[in-house]
Amino acid sequence: MKYFTTMIVFLLATPSVPAQSPPTEMTAEPINPPFAPGIPLSDDAVDEEQWERYWGQQMVRNVTRPAIYPILPSGTRRNGKAVIVIPGGGYMFVSMDSEGFGVANRLADAGYSAFILKYRTIPTPRDPVEYMSQIAASFGTLGKEDLVDHPPAVDDLAAAIRYVSDHAATWEVDPAQIGAIGFSAGSRSLIRLIEQKEEASRLPHVALIYPPMVQTIAGGPRAPLFLAIAVNDPLFQQGGLNMIDQWLDESDQVEFHLYSGGSHGFGTRTLGTTSDKWMDHYVTWLAQQ
């Protein structure tokens, strides 16, 4: 198998690499789709997606056909509740490991049916070397410039909520107990859903993991909120407590965790910081919802 390598002078914040790591060599390894095909939410476009492994993680990009991947608990653990998982990736890729399957497997262990959303991404160069250079340019602005919205990803999230709700009986899920958790760009999609889509009213709880803290959430329902971010995340340094302060003005149903380390994109990776425990905190909070 051919490997592609490029040097990033300023290492970016990604779901697999801490934002303040030193410069390093990055290699993209094209791989076959490592998971069974997901449940399609749309198949009216030519399939262009590319699966690759880099930063020790499996990613997918150039997604044109959104899908969900169910991860279900064992029968004895099933609690009838579900969570839709929206990974990050700056809308350039979908981080399927530490913000997708890692989260979903942990939720399933706790009794929740989890559904990972593979949403449509922006077009990126087919060539891995050119693509890595584009990533460097894009993620190097993290915390300095606002990420541009990507409406197709928000539409795909709305479609995922409808699909899981409509087929809840298939997985022995209560349709009134389907929440959502978004990471980075995935949290941005969840914010836009809250603001713009009626499907947000179906969510009994939401979680935003390292979201764009500089933003306020304009309108929409205020379901109980779990928010986690690290103090050394460029998105926290950019926005501080802005998002939390604004939410608290409208609702006190907030669980907020500000970790002393972890930077941006800690996901389910073990970094040796207190952010390693965020899933424990989230699952404990979920049990109270």
Structure description:
This protein is an alpha/beta fold and 289 residues long. The protein has a single domain (4-286), classed as Rossmann fold (3-Layer(aba) Sandwich), CATH 3.40.50. It is built from 7 helices and 13 strands. It has helices spanning 97-109, 128-139, 151-166, 185-196, 234-239, 242-250, 278-286; strands spanning 4-8, 24-30, 39-40, 50-54, 57-61, 67-71, 82-86, 93-95, 113-118, 178-183, 206-209, 225-230, 254-259. The longest helix has 16 residues, at 151-166.
Specify the number of helices.
7
Give the rounded overall mean pLDDT: 89
Percent of residues in helices comes to 25-40%
| Shape, principal axes of CA atoms | globular
CATH superfamily: Alpha/Beta hydrolase fold, catalytic domain
Top CATH class:
Alpha Beta
Strand content: 15-25%
Order of helices and strands: EEEEEEEEHEHHEHEEHHEH
Overall strand count: 13
Stretches where pLDDT is under 50 for at least 5 consecutive residues are 1-24
CATH topology: Rossmann fold
Q: Tell me about the biggest sheet?
A: 8 strands, mixed
> How many structural units, i.e. domains?
1
